[in-house]
Each structure stands twice: as C-alpha cells, then as structure tokens.
Amino acid sequence: MFKLLFFVMALTMAIVITWPLTNQYLVFTHTVIGSSMNPNLKDKDYILLKKKAILKLDFMRGDIVLFKNPEDPSQLLVQRIVGLPKERLVIQGGYVYINESPLPENYLTPGMLTAPGEDSYEGYENVIPPKSHFVLNDRRFDLTDSRQFGAITTDSIIGKLWFKIY
Prior knowledge:
Blueprint: H1 2-25, E1 27-31, E2 46-51, H2 52-55, E3 64-69, E4 72-83, E5 88-92, E6 95-98, E7 101-102, E8 124-127, E9 132-136, H3 146-149, E10 152-153, E11 157-164
Antiparallel strand pairs: 1-2, 2-11, 3-4, 3-11, 4-9, 5-6, 5-8, 6-7, 9-10
C-alpha cells in the first residue's frame, strides 16, 4: 500500500512540476469562443492543442487549427484547414472543389452547404499561395474565414487540435 501511495504522490509531483514547461513549449489549452465550428466544437469547449513553435507540425487537410485572425491579430480563431499550399480551390453549387475534385467533408452536418445566403461566394476561386492554408468554419454560413480574409500563412498558425477535453 505504501508503494502505491508513494507512486501516486511521485506521479502527481512530476505532473505539477513539468506542466508549466509542457504548457509553454509542447501543448496548451484553449477555450473555444463562439459556435462557428458546431457541431464538432461548441462555444466554451476546452481543447488541448499541440504547439507549432517547437514541434514543427505539418498541417493536413481536415486539421483544426488555432491561428491569429489576419484582420485582428489580438483575436485567436479555431477553424479547419480545407486547402493546402499551391492548390486551386473553387466554391461552386455550395461545395468545395480542390484542383477540380469535390472535397469530401464528412465532418459537416448533413445538408450543410459551403456558401449559403446573400454573400454566398458562389464561384469563389483561389490559388492558395505557398506557405499558406485556406481555412473554413464547420458552420459554413459563418463567413469569418478564408472566404473573407484570404488564405492564412503557416506562420500565423499557433497550434493544431490534439483533442477536446470537454
């Protein structure tokens, strides 16, 4: 019994001592603000992200990332990467096409179109610059994403979602 208690205490101390360094250099937590990523991430969800600065992360299509808003760098946004550097992205008929192929988006709510409403960006076309990514909200009628401010630079990405805590 004493060995188990000692082990639990040692593990707790190790976590308490190393968490500040881990949080500063490897992973960190963030609270989602707003509902633009519903239903996958909701307002006030608490998420754990891998930090880009030290880990030299590669970003792939479908990754959810935290980045500085290009229009207001003091604001952090959480969105999904849909377009990669040098790809040709088109929004047509409510769907996203990458290099003329439809993008399968199983993470969206069934029936969710990419460009509903008055500011539909129908026919939107963009060749994504090198070292940049095109990001979209999962709630596609929320237009505060790359349709509004263009592709984001890789340098503006702070981290990549590792998992949702709650």
